Amino acid sequence: MIEVVLNDRLGKKVKVKCNEDDTVGDLKKLVAAQTGTRAEKIRIQKWYNIYKNHITLKDYEIHDGMGLELYYN
């Protein structure tokens, strides 16, 4: 289990516990459950890399305690 911190830059930080072999789509569903927004309206990225839904967190080398950017479409 790893913990990922997502910051929406509007004053909200979301901490989500997930597995490294979860996909980005699974992470979006966990974030959606905590924030109350729909998972398809969430975009997760780091700098200019927008993460695709079907790729795992391990493939993106997302580790425990890593911070990601959270945007609402």
TrEMBL record:
Keyword Membrane among UniProt keywords: no
Pfam families listed in its UniProt record: ubiquitin
Keywords: Ubl conjugation pathway
Claim: Nucleotide-binding is one of the keywords in the record: no
Source organism, top-level taxon: Eukaryota
Start and end residues of each Ubiquitin-like domain: 2-73
InterPro entries the UniProt entry points to: Hub1/Ubl5 (IPR039732), Ubiquitin-like_dom (IPR000626), Ubiquitin-like_domsf (IPR029071)
PANTHER family listed in its UniProt record: UBIQUITIN-LIKE PROTEIN 5
Protein name: Ubiquitin-like protein 5
